[in-house]
């Protein structure tokens, strides 16, 4: 008979998002939401989900709901920010991690479209979640 292996009990830190700051940008036009987290990038098991809820679109007497814009990716794969200002673009939503060694990292979301709220949600593989809802001011 073989020996039964016990599962390895690894406790991952809680996902945490903090220090939210929202700023309007004129060039390029949009809104930037900065935040930070000390949630580790390694092991690459945490998931970041950004949801941007848009206001309904009014065309003549009709109002049409707009679908949310959602970007979801492993926290470890959020692209590093490039040097210089945010480039102009047609992408409605840009998510970046600021360069730095850690353990704390700074991130931002840049939204180029009108919105009613931005939801930043960080989750661990076992279902723990931290999230922040930023309403349009």
Strand coverage percent = 35-45%
From the alpha carbons, calculate the radius of gyration and give it in angstroms. Answer: 18 Å
Tell me the strand order in the biggest sheet.
1-2-8-7
**SS summary, helix count:** 0
**SSE ordering:** EEEEEEEEEE
The residue ranges in which pLDDT falls below 50 over 5 or more consecutive positions are none
Q: Mean pLDDT across all residues, rounded?
A: 92
Number of strands: 10
Compute the separation of the termini in Å: 66 Å
Largest sheet: 4 strands, antiparallel
**Helix content, binned percent:** under 10%
Coarse shape = globular
Backbone structural class: mainly beta
What does this structure look like?
The protein has 137 residues and is mostly beta strands. Helix content is 0%, strand content 45%. The strands form three sheets. A four-stranded antiparallel sheet has the order 1-2-8-7, with no helix packed on it. A four-stranded antiparallel sheet has the order 6-3-9-10, with no helix packed on it. It is globular, with a radius of gyration of 18 Å. 15% of the residues are buried.
List the helices and strands and how they pair.
Blueprint: E1 18-25, E2 30-37, E3 47-53, E4 57-59, E5 62-64, E6 69-74, E7 93-97, E8 105-111, E9 117-123, E10 129-135
Antiparallel strand pairs: 1-2, 2-8, 3-6, 3-9, 4-5, 7-8, 9-10
């Amino acid at each position: 008979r073989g020996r039964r292996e016990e599962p390895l009990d690894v406790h991952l830190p809680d996902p945490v998002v903090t220090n939210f700051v929202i700023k309007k940008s004129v060039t390029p036009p949009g809104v930037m939401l900065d935040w930070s987290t000390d949630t580790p990038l390694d092991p690459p098991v945490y998931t970041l989900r950004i949801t941007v809820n848009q206001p309904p679109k009014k065309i003549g007497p009709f109002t049409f709901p707009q679908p949310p814009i959602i970007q979801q990716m492993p926290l470890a794969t959020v692209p590093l920010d490039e040097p210089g200002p945010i480039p102009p673009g047609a992408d409605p939503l840009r998510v970046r991690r600021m360069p730095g060694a850690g353990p704390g990292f700074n991130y931002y979301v840049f939204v180029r479209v009108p919105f009613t709220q931005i939801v930043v949600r960080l989750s661990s593989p076992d279902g723990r979640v931290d999230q922040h809802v930023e309403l349009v001011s």
